[in-house]
Design a protein that fits this description.
The protein is of the alpha+beta class and 172 residues long. It has one helix spanning 7-35; strands at 38-50, 57-62, 65-66, 69-72, 78-81, 85-86, 88-92, 99-106, 109-125, 129-141, 146-151, 155-156, 162-169.
Length: 172
């Protein structure tokens, strides 16, 4: 008897591995979406500009900012590259710590934003595991170009929403 597998058996095995690969990727993507927890930050800025007849300065407000770079304080993960105009930031919190700090850089000036929070595990599913939800307790920041930070929502969950409103002045 010949030990060569039947062509249909090879097709069935190949089909099984293709289905396995497709479903494992979709579960992974699904899980990342269900356990991804970030702090949403809305940006609000103002700047002094000369008025039309150059007799005085007017305050101009805006919500889009270009040139803002953001990275974690203790690592170099770039969260905003400064090349595009942005109106919001998505800041990930550390899952094994109660504080996370970010460095914001604009026109060569740096400010630091420190978020202190309480963590809680929330079961998502057997395949995905747990999400680390947080409650923002306190905020601390330097004031080189950051004017103030307003806490809008303390509950940081898997729902994408704004938690902070960051007010700043553009350097002259």
């Amino acid at each position: 008897m010949n030990n060569i597998p039947y062509p249909t058996t090879i097709i069935h095995i190949a089909f099984f591995f293709i289905i396995l690969a497709i479903t494992s990727c979709s579960v992974d993507t699904e899980c990342r979406q269900q356990i991804n927890v970030v702090v949403g930050v809305q940006l609000q800025g103002d700047s002094l500009r000369l008025n039309a007849d150059s007799s005085a300065y007017d305050t101009v407000s805006f919500t889009q900012i270009r040139g803002l770079s953001v990275h974690g304080l203790e690592h170099d993960s770039l969260l905003a590259d400064g090349l595009t105009s942005i109106s919001t930031l998505q800041l990930p919190l550390k899952k094994k710590a109660d504080t996370t700090a970010f460095v914001l850089s604009l026109a060569g000036i740096e400010d630091t934003l420190l978020i202190a929070y309480t963590r809680e595990l929330s079961y998502v599913s057997l395949a995905c595991g747990c999400a680390v939800l947080s409650t923002i307790d306190t905020l601390d920041f330097t004031t080189h170009f950051i004017d103030s930070v307003e806490l809008i929502n303390t509950a940081v969950t898997t729902v994408k929403e704004n938690h902070l409103k960051l007010y700043f002045h553009l350097p002259q």
